[in-house]
């Protein structure tokens, strides 16, 4: 149906040793702009940390609701947050929240700001740097609190 | 040499009328996300960094916070924004991975039920909370409670 064609594209005539762009078979599933790059891992970590934080939030609302039951009930449960194993869990929690928050801000900057879209790779490294700074500020202080006395 | 491209068989889809909920969900994740960064890091700073951090958390600490309207509003916003943000994220993940329709509907029903129950529970706790409950050991209560002074 020539009358219904969407348009025509002129393609270059075959020339040289490789007439068409040579496609190199990737060694591993990779090779697109996105897959296997930093952006993909940010996406993966955003999902994993998001799910983890969600389940913590469910538990945290329930344990805080115990203030409505009695001071003893609340203190008994919050006491478990102070043992060293939970202390390490709180480090993981803050690390997950920090990653999710900074990556979320990066996504917003890429979505709404042309500069952010253009320099999305730089933003990934800025987010990572801020995350490390956040943990340097939090982890030693928290661990001193957990392991003191 | 020219290549002819046939007209695509799929006709242009006319956008459905009504509210585009997915778009508003997308906007909500970003808008609530920015506010949550402030609310959550404020919450973490006050509860884990100031003073003795996690070691200072007990009924008296929470009672002191929740008896102030400032922290009541803070915690209400935190509860609603964070739980809906999390539930919508879980809904997105369910849509991505639950290929079986029944599994998807069941999981999303569970997410919705948990969210509604916890929003109601959490809000009731914040606004019906009594920092100085009668007949409780005085040493567990905040110092501003009348019984503590006697």
TrEMBL record, chain A:
Keywords: Heme, Iron, Membrane, Metal-binding, Transmembrane, Transmembrane helix. Pfam families: Sdh_cyt. It is found in: Membrane. The chain crosses the membrane at residues 44-62, 91-115, 122-144. CDD domains: SQR_TypeA_SdhC_like. Its cofactor is heme. It comes from the Bacteria. PANTHER family: SUCCINATE DEHYDROGENASE 2 MEMBRANE SUBUNIT SDHC (PTHR41910), SUCCINATE DEHYDROGENASE HYDROPHOBIC MEMBRANE ANCHOR SUBUNIT (PTHR41910:SF1). Belongs to the cytochrome b560 family. This is Succinate dehydrogenase, cytochrome b556 subunit. The lineage of its organism: Bacteria, Bacillati, Actinomycetota, Actinomycetes, Micrococcales.
Automatic annotation (TrEMBL), chain B:
Gene3D superfamilies: Fumarate reductase/succinate dehydrogenase, transmembrane subunit. It holds the Pfam family Sdh_cyt. InterPro entries: SQR/QFR_C/D, SuccDH_FuR_B_TM-su. Its main location: membrane. The keyword Iron applies. The chain crosses the membrane at residues 25-50, 70-88, 109-129. Keywords: Heme, Iron, Membrane, Metal-binding, Transmembrane, Transmembrane helix. Coiled coil: none annotated. It is found in: Membrane. This is Succinate dehydrogenase, hydrophobic membrane anchor protein. It comes from Leifsonella bigeumensis. The lineage of its organism: Bacteria, Bacillati, Actinomycetota, Actinomycetes, Micrococcales. The gene is sdhD.
């Amino acid at each position: 149906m020539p009358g219904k064609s969407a348009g025509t594209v002129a393609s270059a005539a075959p020339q040289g040793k490789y007439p068409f762009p040579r496609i190199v078979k990737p060694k591993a599933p990779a090779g697109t702009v996105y897959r296997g790059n930093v952006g993909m891992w940010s996406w993966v970590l955003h999902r994993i940390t998001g799910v983890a934080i969600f389940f913590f939030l469910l538990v945290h609302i329930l344990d805080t609701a115990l203030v409505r039951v009695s001071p003893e009930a609340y203190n008994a449960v919050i006491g478990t947050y102070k043992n060293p194993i939970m202390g390490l869990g709180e480090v993981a929690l803050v690390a997950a929240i920090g990653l999710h928050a900074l990556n979320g801000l990066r996504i917003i900057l890429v979505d709404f700001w042309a500069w952010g879209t253009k320099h999305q790779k730089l933003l990934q490294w800025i987010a990572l740097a801020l995350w490390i700074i956040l943990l340097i500020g939090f982890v030693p202080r928290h661990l001193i609190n957990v392991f003191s006395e | 040499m020219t290549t002819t491209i046939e007209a695509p068989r799929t006709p242009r889809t006319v956008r459905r009328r009504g509210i585009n909920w997915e778009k508003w969900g997308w906007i909500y994740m970003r808008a609530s996300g920015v506010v949550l960064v402030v609310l959550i890091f404020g919450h973490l700073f006050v509860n884990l960094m100031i003073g003795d951090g996690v070691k200072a958390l007990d009924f008296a600490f929470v009672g002191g916070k929740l008896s102030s309207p400032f922290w009541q509003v803070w915690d209400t916003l935190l509860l609603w924004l964070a739980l809906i943000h999390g539930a919508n994220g879980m809904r997105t993940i369910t849509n991505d991975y639950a290929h079986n329709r029944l599994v998807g509907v069941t999981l999303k029903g569970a997410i919705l039920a948990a969210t509604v129950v916890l929003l109601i529970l959490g809000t009731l706790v914040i606004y019906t909370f009594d920092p100085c409950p009668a007949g409780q050991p005085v040493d567990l209560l905040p110092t501003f409670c009348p019984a503590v002074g006697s």
